[in-house]
Amino acid sequence: MSFFLMAEPVLEASENYYDSSDFFTANQNGVYPVCLTFSETENTNTTINADSIIKITAIPAKLFDEVFLNSSETSDEFKCDILNFSDNTNFAYKNANANTTTNDDFKTARSNTTAHANTSHNLIFVQSGAFEPDTKYYFKAYTKMSVITSQNPGWGTVTDETFFALYNRHIKISHDRLTLMNKKSNLEKLGHEIIEGLTSGTLEYKTKLQGLSGLVTMTYVNYSDGNTNATGSNGTHANSSDGLQKTPDKPSTLSDWIFDGTMITKANMAENGTMDGILKISGMYEGSIYFDKVIIKKARAGGGTYSVVQKGRDRHELSWELVPVYK
């Protein structure tokens, strides 16, 4: 007599997925939906379709121990809205659609149908008002037959405005760690300094006089301060001027922001001038910040725009007024 071991479908969550479909809209926190993939083989004991899903919940990775491992969890706080269900054929079309961009690993693994001829992939797009930026989530799918747990955490990509706010939060950590930049007088700020990121890379700070103006160059090389979203020792900012929540989190649950590129500021004796340069960002999110349209007034942004280009999207001009004022 032969026995076959029946298995649950494999549930995986997308990372930084972006889609131009009409249903793909951000929540009030600036976070877009997450795409869940259910991979089924001939040996799976549960068929995933639009009727078999009772509910889907998303648990922040920071709460994994206290909530996610508790299979009796029923709180609506973690419940997701199901926006769209796609079968394998529709997914193949979406991958070929030039208006759709996914993270490379997610796209490649699921479009390689020839390597998985006996595997079908069903997709469900989910959204939640509780999704927050810079936060990873584990997912549970409650079906009529069982509860399926995601293999790894996933997260939704963010709007350009939220991306810019997160950038300002993370870049400030490196600025606060510089010595010369934080001197009181302009003359004291002159000089050369190099610091190492808390987890990788370097930041080189150079300031010199150029005629009657000052030239500041900040060069980031694979620079990262690690999995942190804050400047304080308890995981919080001293203020909330960037408009983002300051919930203390375990370091392992947050994104790693990696900076590469140069920020150039040229200002006269009255501290008015311009910026230039490009900073590339990788890690949990991918994109670039362009500074060539920023106007400096009184030693800080006072006009013009910052240009944001997230991976797979068009360049977006954001007002200098979105830069938080830290005290």
Question: How would you portray this structure in words?
Answer:
The radius of gyration is 23 Å and the shape is elongated. The protein has helices at residues 64-68, 88-96, 104-111, 160-177, 186-189; strands at 10-13, 15-17, 34-40, 53-60, 81-86, 120-127, 137-143, 147-149, 155-156, 191-196, 200-210, 213-224, 257-267, 273-283, 287-290, 294-297, 300-310, 316-319. A hairpin with a 2-residue loop joins strand 16 (294-297) and strand 17 (300-310). The strands form four sheets. Strands 10, 11, 12, 13, 14, 15, 16, 17 and 18 form a nine-stranded antiparallel beta sheet that branches. Helices cover 13% and strands 37% of the residues. The protein contains five helices and 18 strands. Mean pLDDT is 77; it is low at 1-6, 88-119 and 229-254. The protein is mainly β.
Summary, kept brief:
By secondary structure, the chain is mostly beta strands. The protein has helices spanning 64-68, 88-96, 104-111, 160-177, 186-189; strands at 10-13, 15-17, 34-40, 53-60, 81-86, 120-127, 137-143, 147-149, 155-156, 191-196, 200-210, 213-224, 257-267, 273-283, 287-290, 294-297, 300-310, 316-319.
